[in-house]
Amino acid sequence: MKKSYAALALLCFALPLLLLVAPLPVAGQRGRGGPGTPPAAAVPAPPIRRMQDGKPDLTGYGLEQRRSTERLTPSTNGVVVDPPDGKLPYQPWARAERIDRELPHRGYEDPTAHCFVAGVPRSMYTPSPFQILQPPGYVVLLFERMNWRQIPLDGRAHIPDTTRLWNGDSVGRWEGDTLIVDTKNLNGKTWLNEVGDVLTHDAHIVERFTPMNANTIMYRATVTDTVAYTRPWTIEMALNRQDDELLEVACHEDNGDLQHLKDVRDEYRAKNKGK
Amino acid sequence: MNVRLSRAVILAVFVAVAIPAFAHHSFTAEFDTSKAIKITGKVTMMKWANPHAWIFIDVVDSKGKVTNWALETGAANSLIRRGWRKEDLPAGTVLVVEGWQARNGSPTANVSSITFTDGRRLFAGSSNPAAPQK
User: Fold this and answer.
1) Given CB atoms, is A194 within the 8 Å cutoff of chain B?
2) How distant is the Cα of B110 from the closest Cα of chain A, in angstroms?
3) Could you tell me if A239 and A29 are in contact, meaning their C-beta atoms sit under 8 angstroms apart?
4) Which of A83, A143, A236, B133 has the fewest CB atoms within 10 Å around its CB?
5) Least CA distance to B26: which residue of chain A?
6) What's the gap in Å between the CA of A92 and the closest CA on chain B?
7) Is any Cβ of chain B less than 8 angstroms from the Cβ of A165?
8) Is residue B101 domain-resident?
9) Which of B5, B18, B127 is closest, CB to CB, to A6?
10) B42 touches chain A (CB under 8 A)
């Protein structure tokens, strides 16, 4: 009997959900890299939802899912939309650091391997869902990896730059239907991804959340970091709405990988001692 | 139909198409993509943990020697979204496990998928960028 109920549940609920979460074509979506734009959905996406004050309603669960893994973001595979060549405009020292970080013995140094928060903008494309809330005066981002960002919309200034934070200090404002989030005061300890793209304490990040319809937010982040890069650069990706709920990734619970990564590092150091 | 079953069915169906790999750290720093493995063994323990769950299985080689393999999957929530359930993996369950062995050559691997004796296959949310996810 339960099986027939389960089958009914599939018919009644799963099909509409699949249509809802299927990636939709998005204006401005780049064709480079990734699995490409899927065929047009049979049912057009509903229009942008709005709050009582007329601002776009961004609330719900989302996930960057155009690429299959964080590893490919942002240095390769088409999320860098400026510069036009899709490559991060590294200064020589930072490029050398990036190349070195991808070697196995540097894996131990990825802050997320130690369960630190991924920071900005990495939290937006880590392959775990997030939830957007819009209480009065704020936009709040909850990340499944037990991390959050609170973004005040009341026009306040940034906190003094002597205070440095893993997620930095973010302030937001609406520009038409686009939420603009300005972030400074990062601590310079985060990596941009697991292969070690570089972000320093100098980074100033401007994110733009533009709803394209009820199911898709186009996300752009422009990073100005004069210590590591020769010019500002921009990534762009679609954040797709899902009918999910956040669970929890209690990273400190059983982080056995850290010892394995340390073993790899220590073995490398032992082999190269004195060189 | 109880609410729990309904919720589980809906969750399992739709997140299976929506959730990509769980990348918690550099896959290539710890595992070797050139060391693909496919091993069969009996479950001795399953740790539903974060940031990665682990399956331990006893594998018997042609000479009868038993080796206990430690097999890393995605986080516990990542497995639930892919249809894994605790009751499916009691000690003694026979599994075929595919994945990639640790660089250090120990009996440790990152899991791509497990297959039960009835042919049912579940993907493990591997952090290998090349791993199939669904």
Assistant:
1) yes
2) 11
3) no
4) A83
5) A194
6) 23
7) no
8) yes
9) B5
10) no
Contact residues for A218 (Cβ-Cβ < 8 A; gap 6+): A26, A27, A28, A29, A208, A209, A210, A211, A212, A236, A237, A238, A239
pTM reported for the whole predicted model:
0.78
In a domain, residue B128? The reply is no
Say if the Cβ atoms of B77 and A251 lie within 8 Å: no
User: Domain of B95: which CATH number?
Assistant: 2.40.50.140
Question: Is there a domain that residue B105 lies in?
Answer: yes
Domain with B101 in it: 3-123
pLDDT of B9 above 70: no
Domain ranges of chain A: 47-245+260-271
Nearest to B77 among A14, A240, A247 (CB): A247
Cα A101 to Cα A195: distance, rounded to the nearest angstrom: 6
- The ipTM estimated for the assembled molecules is 0.71
Cα separation of A246 and A66, whole Å?
20
Q: How many domains does chain B have?
A: 1
Residue A45's pLDDT is what?
85
- Over residues A194-205, the pLDDT tens digits come to 889 999 999 999
The answer to whether A200 and A179 have CB atoms below 8 angstroms apart is no
Residue B133 falls inside a structural domain: no
**pLDDT grade, residue B15 (50/70/90)?**
very low
pLDDT value at A146 more than 70: yes
Q: CA A275, CA A271: separation in Å to the nearest integer?
A: 9
